[in-house]
Amino acid sequence: MSETAHTARNADHNPSWLYRNRQSIAPWLFLTPGLIFFAFYVIIPVFQSFYISTFDWNGLGDMSELGAQVGLANYVELMDDRKFHTSLINNVKWLVLYLLAIPAGLFISLFLNQTVKGIRLYKSLFFFPFVISQVVVGLVFTWFYDPKFGLLNVALGWFGIDSINVLGDPTLATYGVILAGLWPQTAYCMILYLTGLNAVDPEQVEAARLDGAKGVRMLWHVIIPQLKPATFIAFVVTIIGALRSFDLISIMTNGGPFGSTRVLSFYMFEKSLGEYGLRMGYGAAIAVVLFLIMLVFIVYFLWSMYQEERGR
Amino acid sequence: MRSIIKASAVALGLASVSATALFADAHSQLTGDLIIFSDMSNPAPRAVMEGMVERFGELHPDLNIELTVIDREAYKTQIRNFLTANTPDVANWYAANRMRPYVDAGLFEDISDLWAEPEMEALASTRGAMTINGAQWGVPYTYYQWGVYYRADIFAELGLSEPSTWAEELANCQAIVDSGRACYTIGTKFLWTAGGWFDYLNLRTNGYDFHMQLTSGEIPWTDERVLATFANWRTLVDMGAFVDDHQTYSWQEALPFMVNGDAAAYLMGNFAVAPLREAGLTDDQLDFYQFVEITPGIPLAEDAPTDTFHIPAGAANKDAAREFLRFVVSPENQTIINSGDGLGQLPVNAGASVDDDKFLNQGFEMLSTNSPGGVAQFFDRDASAEMAAAAMEGFQEFMVFPENLDDILERLEETRINMQ
Q1: Which among A55, A62, A79, A275 is the top mutation candidate for probing chain B, defined by the most B β-carbons within 10 Å of its own β-carbon?
Q2: How many CB pairs below 8 A link A and B?
Q3: Fewest CB within a 10 Å sphere: which of A149, B50, B329, B330?
Q4: What's the domain range around A208?
Q5: At A180, which CATH number?
Q6: Which of A273, A274, A278 lies at the smallest CB-CB distance from B101?
């Protein structure tokens, strides 16, 4: 009996190439659809943007026929473009201030990480702003800031303070929009920290308590180090979120007043695709600058993740 | 002017005879598909568009008409894609410089042959707005007047009457400001409303020809005559003529100021009448006057934006498309679509009749008899897209911080030079 089985197996002494390499082929096979989409929707467009940014082309008709190759002229023009400078500075404001969502999220998650009756309801309420659309957030805050009827100015009126037109004042408008953005972003960071807090080792907390640690020292030396993975993810999503800010600006100020709340992504849209934007090449050049800024962060994120992997 | 209208009416009488013959002729011939993309997405215009397609379909039973209505704002970006790939046979757009990029890129069909037909004589008033490089690229289907819509009851309360000179306008405004109101409501969040004010102030201060040269980029923004326009504008800004915080509001959000009586007037297109009536203003409370004369002796010119139909160069069924354009501009159709239950605007065909509406009558009267200077499209249609965007942003800034004027004009001048 065993003799026959042996022969049968031997008869198959020349398995196909596919069969022999199945271990190494299988993962690539599964990856292929993803890689194809990634290439077509991300990698190739990145290089196309680079290419388009060297053209003076209005986005109509065939680029090679109707566009003119201008080399780096679009980038040179960017250097003196005040609107571009405003957008760049606003992007920096977004990057810095948006990070406030991380400590705020941490604080709220510590506050909510307790077992009280109905805590799930409170958690859901705090998470709510992240679930609703950014458009709704934008509209709610626009009404909140309204100089005549808005809740903010009605409340200021109770204290005898003159009404302020947050979104109509070029010095305040960007901060007003960022504040609106912080609302859902804080909720997002809160959820990340709440799940992180579930993974905190109770034995370590116990041990620290025996050693007499409590309050801020406990938080700083025992809890936060254990929340490092959550902090990292919160950092990544907040940075990317800040650089992608577009919908709130579009809804709340439309880039105004007089362009003071533009960021790079919005300016790019205005120049290339907006109602009066017929400069594909210039828009692409802005996109490339934004991409390079993002690349700095992306490389840093990938590098630290790689370090993490190696450390294990 | 009268004689021109009479002459064109006669021409039209002749034309309609040949048009009927033409319809009968085309009747049996038109087959296949006619694909129409339209931006008439608001409820009333949508019904108008669907009605037009239905009536055209009855004339040509063998023709299969497919109508796609796209959101008006989204349409402005989508048109770039569908003119190059997946081209319809007929598409909506706007007149004057607003169509130039598409004409220059060869995406619109030259329909000068259509304009050479005798029945097009009735559209002579808009021929200029449809002409680029000596050829015509589309047909108009509607237009509407701009002017000052005001609260007649507030004027009566303050003992004011419709002004016709700049001095009267300023005196009226001072009286309104003294009564604790703003003279004009405006919402400049989306910028173009400020473009309307610039159009009128510049048309009245410097005249139609200068305005057209400026918008087409032939005159520097730092020109003294431009400064004169802004000086007039500044008089109004400094006396508190405009509502506060207008940079935060859209034109619709600025309507309540007028409805509640916080502001007495609105420089706007005729499309503002419908929402004002809906908000409860009666025709006794609401009235209209032509923007006043500023520099004496300069012929009055008006803004009257024209909306249009075009044939994309890549259209498959151009015969049917041409026939549809003929149908759109015919006096019967123009009367129907521009009536009060339709668009509630002015027909372009001189042979069509204007619906009996207080504001349409005044607008028609104004445009046909009291606009000797010419008819402008609107700032963002007369100026090139990039110039329009930069300038209207500057106008908004000027209305909030008039002291920034020099800096604003320098920036606009820079934009103008960069574009050449």
Answers
A1: A275
A2: 72
A3: A149
A4: 82-311
A5: 1.10.3720.10
A6: A278
CB B301 within 8 A of CB B207: yes
Instruction: Name chain A contacts of B104, Cβ cutoff 8 Å.
Output: 60
Return the CATH architecture of domain B2-144+305-372: 3-Layer(aba) Sandwich (3.40)
CB A229 within 8 A of CB A196: yes
CA distance linking residue A251 with residue A136, whole number of Å = 9
Chain B residues at the A interface, defined by Cβ less than 8 Å, are: 73, 76-77, 80, 83-84, 101-102, 104-107, 189-191, 244-245, 247-248, 380, 385-386, 388-389, 393-394, 396-397, 400, 411, 418
- φ/ψ of residue B104, rounded to 5: -65, -35
A203 exposed, middle or buried (CB, 10 Å; 0-12, 13-18, 19+)? exposed
Domain positions in chain B: 2-144+305-372, 146-303+384-419
Rg for chain A, CA atoms, rounded: 27
Q: Do B393 and A61 touch (CB under 8 A)?
A: no
Beta-bridge partner residues of B136: B131
**Residue A101 falls within a domain, yes or no?**
yes
- All residues of chain A having their beta carbon less than 8 Å from the beta carbon of residue B84 are 60-61
B146-303+384-419: CATH number = 3.40.190.10
The rounded distance, in Å, linking the Cα atoms of A158 and A246 is 34
Backbone angles phi, psi at B37, to 5 degrees: -105, 130
Within a domain: A41: no
The position carrying tokens 């990317």 is A240
CA nearest A256 in B: which residue? B189
A243 interface with B at CB cutoff 8 Å: no
Q: Do domains B2-144+305-372 and B146-303+384-419 have the same CATH topology?
A: yes
Residue A226 CB-density burial (10 A; 0-12 exposed, 13-18 middle, 19+ buried): middle
With CB atoms and an 8 Å threshold, state whether A256 touches B105.
Answer: no
Asked whether this complex has an ipTM greater than 0.90, the answer is no
Residues from chain B that touch A259, judged by Cβ atoms under 8 A, are 393
**B244-284 confidence digits (pLDDT tens):** 999 999 999 999 999 999 999 999 999 899 899 999 999 99
Asked if B101's CB is within 8 angstroms of A58's CB, the reply is: yes
Q: pLDDT of A95-136, one tens digit each?
A: 999 999 999 999 999 999 888 888 889 888 999 999 999 999
How many domains, chain A? 1
Name which of A146, A259, A278 is nearest B393 (Cβ-Cβ). A259
pLDDT at B12: 46
Encode pLDDT of A11-48 as tens digits.
456 778 888 888 889 999 999 999 999 999 999 999 99
Mean pLDDT across chain B, nearest whole number?
A: 89
Inter-residue contact A148 to B245 (CB < 8 Å): yes
Tell me the per-residue pLDDT of B324-374, one tens digit each, with 9 for 90 and over.
999 999 999 999 999 888 888 999 888 888 888 899 999 998 988 888 888
SS3 state at B91: strand
Question: A37 lies in a domain?
Answer: no
In a domain, residue A8? The reply is no
Chain B CB within 8 Å of residue A70 CB? no
For chain A, report the end-to-end CA distance as a whole number of angstroms.
Answer: 49
